[in-house]
Amino acid sequence: MATITEKVAYLKGLVEGMDIDQSTKEGKVLTAVMDVLSDLATTLEDLEDYTAELTEQVDAIDEDLDLLESDYYEEWEEDDDYCDGCCDDCDEDCGDEFYDVTCPSCDTTFCVDEETLLEGGIECPNCGENLEFEIEEDEIEEED
Predict the structure, then answer these.
(1) What number is the average pLDDT over the span 83-92?
(2) End-to-end CA distance of the chain
(3) Percentage of residues in the chain with pLDDT exceeding 70?
(4) Rounded-to-integer distance, Cα 135 and Cα 127, Å
(5) Residue range 126-140: average pLDDT?
(6) Please, which pLDDT band fits residue 143 given cuts at 50, 70 and 90?
(7) 3-state SS string over the chain?
(8) The CA-based dihedral angle spanning residues 57, 59, 60, 65, taken in that order and rounded to the nearest 10 degrees
């Protein structure tokens, strides 16, 4: 399959082979149209090359992001102090109560279980700030 640039070059060759008098109005218009078509074909080819390059870069970024996401979420799944999906948006009942905690330093909200609240503190998974809780067991039972 011929590219646009090749097709325009073929047309340009046909026009040149017709021995059109470029001093006439028709000859000037046809020559100008061929020049514009040639410029458009070159620009289109450049854009196609640029798009292909960008596509490769986006694909590489997407692969890197997938690796980061899998590493990040795998780390969270291994840590028992954090919610494993059995709260707010999940229909499964895991038997544990989870509570949303918002870090005052970075405003990141994450889930912790009841045991973590009773232990008195946890490190923010986003900024590393040490968060302390002053909650007693009977206060948690009142919320339920």
Answers:
(1) 48
(2) 70
(3) 77
(4) 23
(5) 74
(6) low
(7) CCCHHHHHHHHHHHHHHCCCCCCCHHHHHHHHHHHHHHHHHHHHHHHHHHHHHHHHHHHHHHHHHHHHHHHHHHHHHHCCCECCCCCCCCCCCCCCCEEEEECCCCCCEEEEEHHHHHHCEEECCCCCCEEECCCCHHHHHHHC
(8) 120
Tell which residue, 111, 108, 85, has the closest CA to residue 98.
111
The amino acid sitting at 18 is M
Q: What is the pLDDT of residues 100-120, one digit of tens each?
A: 888 888 888 888 888 877 888
pTM of the model: 0.44
